[in-house]
């Protein structure tokens, strides 16, 4: 018993010098945890891992000290849902801003913001100005989201992308509906500017002019998306009829 006590003391002393603290657990059995040491070791990927020192007591009375890696819950990035394809991560499609669709969207954002401000300045007490105010704010948010999506998610501009046709249909409906709404806004703002009791008559006239420009821009976008939608659904297989030989 004295020999075993001396061995335990020597092991505990060695662990104290290396680990920094000792937690002796006098439990009978083959395996006894004599000390716990948390060490940070650099790995190949630059991450830090925790190791633990344990003491194994053999049946013949001798002890053996081992260093094992402590198990941790790991969350692998491969298990996450990939919104951006792997081969296109870290890229921004800034070239889209120089295309016709990008320039049109930038112009729509700027004009929608100006129309929103002018509609507020015209007369917020009337329903005609409120109509233009709500339509311009709605298009400002949605077009900004579309532009951001095309820049941040470059795979949406690829023709072979499986979800591209669905986005074209969404934009076609959006631009078609808002073309009609802005066309209505033109006449509402003209009617507001012609009324005698309007204080912001100049703002109403400018809003009507900007609504004309927005109607033209949204109509162009509608035609472009309609052509793109038809191009996506053109048949790619050509069947040639010929005389069959007997």
UniProtKB/TrEMBL annotation:
Membrane topology annotation: Multi-pass membrane protein
Main location: membrane
Transmembrane segments: 96-120, 140-156, 168-190, 202-220
Domain named MARVEL: residues: 96-230
Gene Ontology CC entries for this record: membrane
Keyword Magnesium: no
Domain of life: Eukaryota
Compartment(s): Membrane
Keywords annotated in UniProt: Membrane, Transmembrane, Transmembrane helix
UniProt cross-references to InterPro entries, sorted A to Z: Marvel, MARVEL-CKLF_proteins
PANTHER family: MARVEL DOMAIN-CONTAINING PROTEIN (PTHR22776:SF52), MARVEL-CONTAINING POTENTIAL LIPID RAFT-ASSOCIATED PROTEIN (PTHR22776)
UniProt name for this protein: MARVEL domain-containing protein
Organism annotation: Caenorhabditis elegans
Lineage, top ranks: Eukaryota, Metazoa, Ecdysozoa, Nematoda, Chromadorea
